[in-house]
Specification:
Length: 610
């Protein structure tokens, strides 16, 4: 069981415990929190018998840190109970949880080397936002509560980080013992102050027996929640465990809502109007954050395909080769003989295949297809008006592009010629019709869905034997429309790109994002067995200008060799079984024109990794 799941259970228990604490406090005089904190610290002594179940003598520094963490937890509890006396039961613990997550994250950046990944940061943000919104939804005098809340958060944050450090250098039982010792010693020190000693002893004596049993019974309940929370901190990042305390707020809110309806005299809580709406929205944010985190952890823990089972290919563009000053035939032969990909994607450029109306030049494309057949490498043949490489839409000069009717008529004629010519070719494995048709990218006319349907119908009618592969953008594409229409789905996967609005950006997604998106789309299309592949794994610089217009130094600044390697590793973590690497012409250009074979050699090793 993961630390996140344990944290959910722990904070659910602690939420129920907080309701009981509020019930007890609500029937006591103001200023009773010192007594509560004292008995809280003493009650933690219940963990000391665990000494006989695996305690190991820690180093001096670990011992001091563990005891100090226990003392800091007690200080934090003092401020929490102070806030609880001054605010609503849903308010104080909720905002303490939200602020504590922030404080823990800040303290972690100082003392811990571990950091949250992108998905965890997004979940963290939603959980904290939900907690803060829950607090802001309350209609109380916040000035009375906020100072206590901030103080509690600061001390909880540093205590949690110290606990993580202790658990990193000692076993769980040892860390638990040190923490318990720290809270017991801290509670005992409260007796040194005469005023507090008198308050603790006199108020404890005046407490009815039933309330004593209720309090200590609740301490056992809270102790179980605390034990689980500590174990969650041992397993996971403390800031994330604290952010999950939003679950505590949801539990408190749900139970108080029910109790306020059934027994309104027990709690003076505001549960209607804007306050209720705010808490419902906050609950939704917390649930969304937890679901996102849950999906992230689920896909993260799925087994990776063995490297020997991966299919690696690339895309070859004769146009890209020429733009880099390369000989297309030499480049393609080297790709087939040296890289030896398992599969390859070739591109039928309309302006090259039909340079004049109804005058076709298949010499280059025939040669590429035949070379692929000789090498025994299956081909994805990309056809249509929008195909790989900028500007995407490669229209013949003779075509009246702005006349939709003429353009569409000529396109259908052109596709029919291609389908009839290559449908029996031994190298053909898939037809790719249009490139990312639903994504508005490139210098192309507006997308015409009805025309796209006609293209699909035409190719299926002329060649019902070969599957149709359709593609979409990995990060911004919806996938649904494309996956619904195609036999095989191909996504792009880029890490670092240039955008006219934001400039150079690295997409803030994790590898698991793609599998989650795949699962959702397969569910929506009701095609659970549909094959999903990465048709375009970005492994060359993506800049403001084309590669051949960009100085070499700038190319490496945009996309270094280290980024090349990390992108390959990122792709493997995405758990697809087929990848078409993008950039083979660039790797070959670096190898032959700049005596830099690092990218080419690494690609070759990756393609044949066992």
């Amino acid at each position: 069981m993961s630390g996140a799941v344990i944290a959910v259970i722990a904070h659910s228990i602690l939420g129920a415990s907080l309701i009981i604490d509020k019930f007890i406090l609500g029937h006591r005089v103001k200023g009773n929190s010192i007594t509560f904190v004292f008995w809280l610290g003493i009650a933690n002594g219940i963990f000391l018998p665990f000494f006989f179940f695996g305690f190991e003598a820690p180093s001096l520094s670990t011992g001091i840190l563990g005891v100090l963490a226990g003392g800091l937890l007690l200080v934090a509890s003092r401020f929490l109970f102070g806030a609880l006396e001054r605010g609503e039961v849903t308010e104080a613990p909720t905002v303490v949880g939200a602020f504590t997550a922030i404080a823990t994250a800040l303290w972690s950046s100082v003392f811990l080397e571990d950091s949250l990944n992108t998905a965890e940061k997004m979940a963290f943000g939603l959980l904290v936002l939900g907690g803060l919104l829950m607090f802001l939804s309350e209609r109380v005098a916040r000035k009375r509560v906020v100072p206590w809340v901030i103080a509690a958060s600061i001390f909880y944050g540093i205590a949690n980080v110290f606990q993580k450090l202790v658990f990193s250098s000692a076993n769980f039982i040892t860390g638990l013992m040190l923490l318990s010792l720290g809270t017991v010693l801290g509670a005992s020190m409260l007796l040194l102050r005469k005023k507090w000693r008198h308050q603790i002893l006199t108020r404890s004596e005046k407490t009815p027996v039933t309330r004593r049993f209720l309090y200590f019974g609740n301490r056992v309940l809270a102790g179980g929640g605390t034990l689980l929370a500590l174990y969650a901190i041992k397993l996971d990042h403390p800031a994330l465990v604290d952010a999950i305390s939003g679950v505590r707020a949801v539990v408190v809110f749900a139970l108080i809502f029910v109790i306020a309806k059934l027994k309104p005299h027990l709690f003076a809580e505001h549960m209607k109007g804007r306050e209720l709406a705010g808490k419902l929205v906050a609950t939704a944010l917390i649930i969304i954050g937890l679901l996102g985190l849950g999906f992230q952890r689920y896909y993260e823990n799925q087994p990776l395909p063995h490297v020997s089972s991966l299919t690696w290919g690339t895309t070859f563009s004769e146009r890209a080769a020429r733009e880099l000053g390369l000989d297309p035939e030499e480049t393609y032969r080297s790709i087939l003989s040296e890289l030896r990909p398992d599969v390859i994607r070739l591109v039928a450029y309309w302006d090259l295949v039909e340079p004049e109306p109804k005058q076709f030049d298949f010499s280059s494309l025939d040669w590429q297809m035949n070379e692929s057949a000789k090498a025994g490498i299956p081909v994805v043949l990309a056809i249509g008006q929008k195909v790989p490489r900028w500007p995407e839409c490669h229209y013949p000069r003779w075509l009246e592009v702005k006349n939709d009717n003429v353009r569409n008529e000529k396109l259908i004629e052109y596709l029919a010629v291609l389908a009839e010519r290559y449908r029996e070719h031994p190298a053909l494995a898939y037809w790719q019709i249009e490139n990312e048709p639903y994504l508005p990218f490139g210098e192309c006319p507006p997308f015409d869905e009805s025309m796209f349907e006609k293209e699909l119908t035409l190719v299926k009618r002329l060649d019902g034997r070969h599957p149709i592969l359709l593609t979409d953008g990995g990060e911004f594409g919806t996938w649904y429309q494309v996956a619904r229409r195609g036999d095989v789905f191909g996504t792009t996967l880029y890490r670092k790109v240039h955008n006219k609005v934001f400039g150079y950006i690295t997409y803030p997604v994790t590898p698991q994002f793609f599998q989650l998106k795949k699962s959702v789309v397969q569910f929506l299309t009701k095609k659970p067995e549909q094959k999903f592949i990465v048709i375009e794994l970005g492994l060359e610089p993506w800049g403001e200008k084309q590669i051949y217009e960009t100085p070499l130094e700038e190319q490496f600044r945009l996309f270094s060799f280290d980024e090349f390697k990390t992108t390959v590793e990122f792709a493997k973590q995405a758990r697809f079984d087929t990848y078409y690497a993008w950039g083979a012409e660039w790797w070959y250009w670096l190898k032959t024109k700049h005596n830099d074979s690092r990218f080419w050699d690494f690609a070759k090793e990756t393609f044949h990794e066992k």
